[in-house]
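Hi all, posting the design record for the shared folder.

TITLE: backbone redesign
STEP: 1 of 1
STRUCTURE INPUT:
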């Protein structure tokens, strides 16, 4: 992932600010139940934030756990097939590095600053019982969007509903009408901390999702003006329509520059699996800022994904769900104003959570 290593001027090189980071990390690791006697690794690299590696290491030591930093090289761009210009997933600084993977599997807790998400090695490390916490958002967002038990409860109660559902339908005034069959894949939750063996999470996020059955998605998804697409990191200025048949986007319609950009970037992976439907769900955080990237362009879009009542459509991999689809292309598309129904019952109505 092309994680932007820039740190705002106000956070650079100042002891006070580093202390503030340590205290933010320490509070987060307490939520993750990092404790005396545990073994932790901070997985860092050239693409991550050096300040975070230092702060994470110090915070873990403050909690009495054993810790060291495992520093990795960047993914070589020539190793990426196709000519994509956007962030990739699933090819990481430890891909193919058995010693690194085996070492991480022996840790109780790993702080991931390099984005292992959607990689086979992340699945393998989690299967050993290691907890993984991804941290890539800028400090202002870590400070603002604190995980809470209340958000965890909202995520988990949504997950209970999603687990029982056999079908999911999304509609919107913009023209979205898409149906998905469910049941093949598990429901996953993100509430911003990992306190159970084998759990992955991303600090700070508040949403839940599952993957539709293979081939089980049909309809149209209209991403409207003002909706967000990662990794283009754009709020759309013109609508895009995705025509989906049997689990794959067959056509990307739209005459504006956003549609053109999405067509180009998805095609740039030269991978048919880029067009597969991936995780589908909704966000629950009433304090998340939908327009966070207007003031913090270094963000990877955590807040639009967590924003209460957004409905998130995505494309690409399903490895972490237990599927076999490994692709470096992954696009998340949180949308406003949608209604999401489970077996006909709305859980999100026109962009508002149904309680
Ligand atoms: Fe995603």
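Okay, here is what came back for every position:
SEQUENCE:
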């Amino acid at each position: 992932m092309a994680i932007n290593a820039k740190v705002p001027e106000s956070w650079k090189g100042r002891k006070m600010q580093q202390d503030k980071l340590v205290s933010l990390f320490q509070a987060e690791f307490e939520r993750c139940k990092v404790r005396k006697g545990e073994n932790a690794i901070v997985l860092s690299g050239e693409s991550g934030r050096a300040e975070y590696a230092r702060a994470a290491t110090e915070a873990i030591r403050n909690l009495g756990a054993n810790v060291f930093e495992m520093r990795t090289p960047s993914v070589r761009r020539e190793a990426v097939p196709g000519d994509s210009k956007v962030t990739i997933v699933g090819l990481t600084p430890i891909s193919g590095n058995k010693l690194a993977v085996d070492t991480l599997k022996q840790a109780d807790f790993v702080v991931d600053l390099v984005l292992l998400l959607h990689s086979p090695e992340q699945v393998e490390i989690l299967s050993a019982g290691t907890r993984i916490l991804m941290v890539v958002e800028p400090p202002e967002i870590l400070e603002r969007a604190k995980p809470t038990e209340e958000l965890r409860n909202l995520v988990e109660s949504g997950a209970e509903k999603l687990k029982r559902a056999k079908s999911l339908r999304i509609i919107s005034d913009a023209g979205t009408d898409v149906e998905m069959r469910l049941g093949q894949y598990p429901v996953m939750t993100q509430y911003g901390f990992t306190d159970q063996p084998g759990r992955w999470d991303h600090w700070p996020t508040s949403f839940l999702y599952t993957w539709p059955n293979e081939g089980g998605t049909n309809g149209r998804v209209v991403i409207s003006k003002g909706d967000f697409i990662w990794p283009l990191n754009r709020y759309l200025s013109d609508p895009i329509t995705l025509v989906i048949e049997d689990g794959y986007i067959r056509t990307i319609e739209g005459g504006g520059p956003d549609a053109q950009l999405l067509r180009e970037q998805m095609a740039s992976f030269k991978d048919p699996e880029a067009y597969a439907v991936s995780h589908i769900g909704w966000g629950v955080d009433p304090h998340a800022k939908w327009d966070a990237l207007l003031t913090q362009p270094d963000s990877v879009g955590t807040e639009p994904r967590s924003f209460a009542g957004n409905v998130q459509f995505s494309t690409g991999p399903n490895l972490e769900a237990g599927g076999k689809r490994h692709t470096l292309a992954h696009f998340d598309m949180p949308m406003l104003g949608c209604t999401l129904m489970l077996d006909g019952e709305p859980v999100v109505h026109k962009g508002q959570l149904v309680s």
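COMMENT: The chain has nine helices and 20 strands.
Let me know if anyone wants the other runs.
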